Amino acid sequence: MSANQRGPENADAAALCLFAIDPSAIKIGKEIGKGAFSVVYSGEFNKKRVAVKCQPKDEHGGIPPFVLKEVQILQRLHHPNVLEFIGAADNRKTRQILILSEHSHHGDLDQLLRNIRKGATPHLGWTKLVQVALDVARGIAFLHEQRFIHRDIKSSNILLDEQFCAKLCDFGFATETTAWDETGDANELGITSKRRKSYCGTDAFMAPEMFLDEDYNENVDVFSFGVVLMEMICCRVANKDGFVMRLPQHKFRVVLSEFQDAMPASCPAAFARIAEQCVAFEPTERPTSADIVRNLEGVLALGDLDSAGPVVLRSFTPTVESCVDNEPQIDEDDDDDDEEEDDDDEDDGSDAGAGLDEDFIREVRTMGYPTGGTRS
């Protein structure tokens, strides 16, 4: 039986210190979230409000390997747009692992967007929404700088604090990409030469190359972020009711007309274009996370994003049989050094294209505001 299976008491010293919090020192309150593998509660620790993620131990009473991996990753990541890790505890009495993090006052982005669509919460306005997007992009860029791929970027894994500052959470599917080319440098696109074949994440946000069981790298996070942007812009749920449907006949690509038809008329064109570029079918045609940060900063610098007045969301008719949200999925990593294969598929015109950074910022400065809705 491995150290991970036996539990933290038999793990190495570095792992042991990660579970040093006394479970009796944690006060657990009401449930505030639920995932496929865990439940999150509000709580209190050292007189500070915290979020407590409760993860069942395995049948042997040990820590599931993916839980240990998540905690080991969390304790290495410190950034304003990554949820702050406080510590973890091994509750032998309840056979649970407790992961403590900062509490997010406004919950997750998915619920916020649903509340806006229902009219229960006012729309934030484009300036605030672009700022939230920029926060997320900065968090993703930080992960990629640290050579991590999140692999499950989605609206429900983005939390909002009291000032609506966005923070990435849930690193259970995250993986480290430490293998670069022999020179130790990234290639000209800034992406790693080591690629993976794991199938994991959530279907509605999953990049086509992962769906199609092809090699992939950190560009899968960019694609997922593009779907998040589309949800933010339209306040719609991806892969439901004809919005950003991911269908095998389209090779799981995003059909841009579904996004454009749902876009509010007041959406800044530059903001929408970033979303479209992120979901390009070809990974090499997507911007890097660093590009996205610069471009969103450029959109904010344009100013007057809310000059058109209140945002009017486009109506839609829910279908009787909507696609249900698929639970997050994961398969084992295939770390063999396979050669990359060329994709000979023809372009059907739905790819967003590339051409970001300074050229993009110069272009968006010439765009009129606001523009949006269905475009030719």
From TrEMBL:
Residues 328-358 have a biased composition (Acidic residues). Residues 322-376 are annotated as: Disordered. Mg(2+) binds at N157, D170. Residues 26-300 form the Protein kinase domain. Keywords: ATP-binding, Kinase, Magnesium, Metal-binding, Nucleotide-binding, Serine/threonine-protein kinase, Transferase. It comes from Pythium insidiosum. It holds the Pfam family PK_Tyr_Ser-Thr. The active site is at D152. GO terms for molecular function: ATP binding; metal ion binding; protein serine/threonine kinase activity. ATP binds at K53. This is Protein kinase domain-containing protein. It comes from the Eukaryota. Belongs to the protein kinase superfamily.
